[in-house]
Automatic annotation (TrEMBL):
It comes from Verminephrobacter aporrectodeae subsp. tuberculatae. Belongs to the UPF0065 (bug) family. This is Tripartite tricarboxylate transporter substrate binding protein. Transmembrane segments: none annotated. Pfam families: TctC (PF03401). PANTHER family: BLR1237 PROTEIN, TRICARBOXYLATE-BINDING PROTEIN. Coiled coil: none annotated.
Length: 219
C-alpha cells in the first residue's frame, strides 16, 4: 500500500507479526554462503538467476535490492505460484530464491533445498546454524522481512486505536500465542501507532525506489 494512501485513507494501528526471508538454494548447489552466490554473479553477469512468486513480490524486490547492494546483475525468473517456485529451486530450474520458513519449509525439511543465509539483523529462532546475509559474505545490514498489521479507517478516534494496539500487544505477550507463532516461524511484532506509521513509510520508500528503478507497473 502506498504511504500516501495510508495517510489519506487509513490510520496505522499496530503490526501483529513478522518473519524474515532466507536465501534458498538447491540442495546440490555448490554455494555454501551468500558470498559464494555473489561471487558467481560477479563472475558471470546475468547468468546467475533467481526465482520469485511473481513480478513485484517481496522475493523479486528483495533480490533486486541484493543486486543493487552488492553491485551484481542477475536474471529474474518469475513463477505463478509459490509451490512451483520452490519446486523449481529444488529441481535446479533456478539458482536461488528468497523464501520464508513457512513457504520454503516443506522443501527444506525434505532435503530438497538449503538455507544458506537469513536476511535478518540477527540469526532467527529455530535456525541458529543459519548465518545472516552479512555474516555469510553479503552486504552489511541487509534485511528482507514481511509483516502483517492492522489499519483503521481515517478518523477513527485515537482512544479506539490505542485500545486496539494495547490489546494486541497484550495478546502477543501471551505464551500460548508465541508458541503458536513459533510453529509457523513467525515472531510477535508490536509497535505503537506512531512507530508503525514510520515503519510503513520507511518500507514504502525502500521498496518504492526499487519498483521505480525496475519500472514495475500495474497492468
Amino acid at each position: 500500500m502506498q504511504a500516501t494512501r495510508l495517510g489519506r485513507d487509513f490510520a496505522s494501528v499496530t503490526p501483529m507479526l513478522r518473519n524474515y526471508f532466507f536465501v534458498v538454494v538447491p540442495a546440490a548447489s555448490p554455494w555454501r554462503t551468500t558470498g559464494d552466490l555473489l561471487r558467481a554473479a560477479r563472475d558471470k553477469p546475468a547468468v546467475v538467476n533467481y526465482g520469485s512468486w511473481f513480478v513485484g513480490s517481496p522475493g523479486h524486490l528483495g533480490a533486486a535490492m541484493l543486486e543493487a547492494a552488492s553491485g551484481t546483475r542477475m536474471t529474474h525468473v518469475p513463477y505463478k505460484e509459490m509451490t512451483q517456485l520452490y519446486t523449481g529451486v529444488g529441481n535446479g530450474e533456478v539458482h536461488w530464491a528468497f523464501g520464508s520458513a513457512a513457504s520454503a519449509g516443506a522443501m527444506q525439511r525434505a532435503g530438497r533445498v538449503r538455507y544458506i543465509a537469513v536476511a535478518a539483523p540477527a540469526r532467527v529462532a529455530g535456525f541458529a546454524d543459519v548465518p545472516t546475509v552479512a555474516e555469510s559474505g553479503g552486504p552489511a545490514q541487509f534485511e528482507l522481512s514481511a509483516w502483517v498489521g492492522l489499519l483503521a479507517p481515517k478518523g477513527t478516534p485515537r482512544a479506539v486505536i490505542d485500545r486496539i494496539q494495547q490489546d494486541v500487544a497484550a495478546v502477543a505477550a501471551e505464551r500460548e500465542l508465541q508458541a503458536r507463532y513459533a510453529t509457523l516461524f513467525y515472531e510477535p511484532y508490536s509497535l505503537t501507532p506512531e512507530q508503525f506509521a514510520r515503519q510503513v513509510a520507511a518500507d514504502a520508500q525502500r521498496f518504492g525506489e526499487t519498483i521505480r528503478r525496475l519500472d514495475i507497473r500495474l497492468d
